[in-house]
Amino acid sequence: MTRLASHLQFRFSEPMTNAPYRFSARVGDMDREQIHAWLSREAYWAKGRPRALQDAAIDASANFGMFDAVSGRQVAYARVVTDSVTFAWVCDVFVDHTVRGHGVAVALMENVCARLDDLQLKRVVLTTGDAHGLYEKFGFELLAEPEKWMARTAATPKI
Q1: Which has more confidence, 12 or 26?
Q2: Alpha-carbon distance 81 to 110, whole Å?
Q3: pLDDT value at position 154?
Q4: 121 near 35, Cβ under 8 Å?
């Protein structure tokens, strides 16, 4: 069990909408089929991602979801890659279009950040093309020295 997994006793956020949602950090609760559909079809950063690759990413990460409390349907997802000591990368954050604007993304990030705050990490990063305002609510800001960051990209691995 990772250090992050051992800290998954989460705090509930204040009620965020009229509709009831629940948060989960249990990988067994994640709807892998739905997550893959969202990311591979709708997310600009993951379009075309193979299901086996997505499943491998889920298995190697801490996973977080928001669920409709009545139907049990997953309505949002986030994944964190971390060493649980110094660094974390928040990625694959996605909210179903049917619940956008209802506070689901805020509640999801509240709970994800609470878990990460418990770890007292030096740095938590993410990238976004369109949700800067959301992440700024949780203390994320543009890199002070982006010229010091580099990335190595490769073709999609075969799994």
Answers
A1: 26
A2: 17
A3: 83
A4: no
135, amino acid identity: Y
Task: For residue range 47-67, list pLDDT tens digits in order.
Answer: 999 999 999 999 999 999 999
Distance CA 5, CA 28 (A): 13
At residue 12 the predicted structure's pLDDT band, cuts being 50, 70 and 90, is very low
Phi-psi region of 103 (alpha: psi -120 to 50; beta: other; left: phi over 0): left
Query: Under CATH, to which class is 5-148 assigned?
Result: alpha beta
Which tokens go with 144?
């002070």
- The b-or-e profile of 125-134 (16+ CB within 10 A means b, else e) is ebeeeeeeeb
Model pTM? 0.86
Buried b (16+ CB within 10 A) or exposed e, 49-60: beeebbeebbee
Q: What are the helix and strand counts (H, E) for the chain?
A: 4, 5
